Amino acid sequence: MKPYLKVNEWRIVEEGFDPALNEVSESVFSIGNGYMGQRANFEEQYGGPSLQGSYMAGVYYPDKTRVGWWKNGYPEYFAKVLNSVNWIGIDVEVDGVQLDLSQCEVQNFTRTLDMREGTLSRSFTAVLPGGRRLRVESLRFVSVPFKEIGAIRYAVTPLDGPAQLKLTPYLDADVVNKDSNYEEKFWEEIAQEAGVDYARVEVKTRKLDFRVASHMRYDLEAADVRSGGAGQADADSADGSDQPEGEMHVEADTHTRGKFAGLSLSLRAEADQTITLYKYAAHVTSRDHAPETLADKAREFAEDAQERGFDALLAAQREAWAEKWRDGDIAIEGDAKAQQAIRFNIFQLHQTYTGEDDRLNIGPKGFTGEKYGGSTYWDTEAYCLPFYLSTADSSVARNLLIYRYKHLGKAKENAAKLGFSKGALYPMVTMNGEECHNEWEITFEEIHRNGAIAYAIYNYVEYTGDTSYLGEYGFEVLAELSRFWEERVNHSERKGYMILGVTGPNEYENNVSNNWYTNRMAAWTLEYTGQVAAELRKNEPEAYEALINRISLSEAELGKWADISKNMYLPQDDELGVFLQQDGFLDKEILPVSKLDAHNLPLNQKWSWDRILRSCYIKQADVLQGLFFLGDRYDLDTKKRNFDFYEPITVHESSLSPCVHAILAGELGYTDKAYEMYLRTSRLDLDNYNNDTEDGCHTTSMAGTWMSVVHGFGGLRVRGGRLVLNPFSPEEWTSLSFKVGFRGARLKVTVTGGSTVVENESESPASLTLYGREVEVPAGGSVSGEREA
Length: 789
Ligand code: BGC
What we know:
Blueprint: E1 5-6, E2 11-15, H1 22-28, E3 31-32, E4 36-38, E5 54-64, E6 77-83, E7 90-94, E8 97-98, E9 105-114, E10 119-127, E11 133-142, E12 149-158, E13 163-172, E14 187-195, E15 198-205, E16 211-223, E17 230-233, H2 235-238, E18 250-257, E19 260-269, E20 275-285, H3 294-308, H4 310-328, E21 330-333, H5 336-352, H6 379-391, H7 394-406, H8 408-417, H9 440-445, H10 449-464, H11 468-488, E22 490-492, E23 496-498, H12 516-539, H13 541-550, H14 555-566, E24 572-573, E25 578-579, H15 603-606, H16 609-614, H17 623-629, H18 636-646, H19 657-668, H20 671-682, H21 699-713, E26 717-719, E27 722-725, E28 735-742, E29 745-752, E30 755-760, E31 766-770, E32 773-777, E33 782-786
Parallel strand pairs: 27-31
Antiparallel strand pairs: 1-2, 2-9, 3-4, 4-5, 5-6, 7-8, 7-13, 9-10, 10-11, 11-12, 12-20, 13-19, 14-15, 15-16, 16-17, 16-20, 18-19, 21-28, 22-23, 24-25, 26-27, 28-29, 29-30, 30-33, 31-32
Helix pairs in contact: 5-21, 6-7, 6-10, 6-21, 7-10, 7-11, 10-11, 10-12, 11-12, 12-13, 12-14, 12-17, 17-19, 18-19, 19-20, 19-21, 20-21
This protein binds beta-D-glucopyranose.
Beta-D-glucopyranose is lined by residues 364, 372, 377-379, 505, 507, 619-620, 654, 656, 700.
């Protein structure tokens, strides 16, 4: 698809309306605040292709599994994030003709996502059937400071003489999930009600009894065409009674039906007179409030929003976003496309997860679509955590870890369900800690996810220095993961400990033995668990004693883990000097992707599964993922040999792939490759590279994009608790600057070619290693350095 979005450093702009692109734009222009999210659907009715999507974080449905052949241990359900109350709806009629852009000639259409302030706006002139022209301008946002609130300003202006207008703001919970397995509707009604100045609906899910209550209020304003001022209409005048002189005459008519409540506001507008409807919708769920209080809570929030007014809510929204950008912006000079792309990635991440609620996590599509069910994958630990570690308060990253801690019980149940006598196997896909994916290769075989969960604990502690996490939560998780590995390995007299029958991160291989990455991360987990045990024993002996008693951990277990870790079989080829992705990998025909005719790509659409499995082609970083995680344990030559061997046979058909390659390429000095990989990840959705953005944006891979800049070009690592920077900026850019927080200090790193200035914008001094040199950056001060040629 040809890129169609305008390049602008702070905005995503679509000019001209093309119905064929609408669903892609609905994903790209989504808005969210971590608590809820909304695709960029139109407020008014639209009969063309559209995926209506309003999502509330953590409200899901356990949709009964659909598989061909049942296997013991399959999850009973695949969780779906629920398409929830459509709160943006405003039907518009002009002289009895419905506004629907699929039935109109659309002129001067512009849709804009303003990333600096977190708003979505749209403007157009519609030529309605019959020839009347109507100008529409809308602006909406989901509030960051008032998370329950979504607000819309919707202004209509009849252009060809006076017109009778009917505006119908409503709440509609009679919605479906496109991805429903059995075309079932997931919501049941509890209440719907409308009065002259409000509408409300309350619904519950058919299973699990999640409840959502939404309440809507509005204000109506008519521009005074003579003086240029505005007149108000409210509930008193809306029903036509008590009509003060000089104010517009509005008739309100209420409508309710199953799971739907709204009211139509009929009024006469002069030619060129703008009528503005402000809609305030509040949403609360039984996740946060007692069910019997939901209706009142929603009403209170909506009334409060109305009282504050649209402009005040908008000002607060701008302020909240300014703060997010102050702490985590990336500025790229000399390449507006790259600048727009990185801001878009950062923006979507902040819209998806704010870290206030440790029951929530980050779905691969965020709130931008239904694919992947909004569930949690290993993506969070492997790709997203570093972004939040560097750009938000450490409590945000800590909450991502606590999420898994809280699921430890379920992870133990999951291991037991698969026949293990002890230990924890975290799910590959989850909402509440239970596995809810039904592809056997993923459910049963991608056990490498346990490695990422252990690694995230290490990463968090190493980055923040918060060792208290280990005694309080982390060690218990590590111990249960180690117990799982202890039982999952088997011992071969000839080779040592082996892990058979797995799928590694490269999902284009199934049921392989001794996937290097899986074995390596398992061995590392066992070693790290032992190391943490030793540290806790030394530093907090009493707490440690209590902890090991509580989880009944024996010395014998610790001894066994050390033995497995030391003697784990790690396949490698001495001649090539590379780690083998799995046993027998070199028996395949090894042919670089560049030698394949382009018509073969993407393999997952062009080749049979059988052919993919037999081939050498790699979906996403596998051995290289391990070399990225454990980068301090391998020298540059080893990384180079493996990169040179594996990258040419990698097809990057997971959006998570290019970023890891960009980071390693940066470290190896392959600057062109790093830049090529960065381009591939950063504009993935803006340019719809994979032709699938209509399903939603690749939110978790956006965290990978951020890593490819900060860890790739910025060369950021943490080694022995110390921040290390080795920055360079690609030739194509005049300069690059990024901001990271590290242990109380906030640093702005500006890179021009191979020269770097680090400014300390905080009140805490910072100590770091810049281009191999140890430097101190006093509060408010700066240091600079040059990269060796
Ligand atoms: C990748 C997985 C990833 C999932 C969700 C798949 O295509 O292979 O590694 O967890 O997408 O993003």
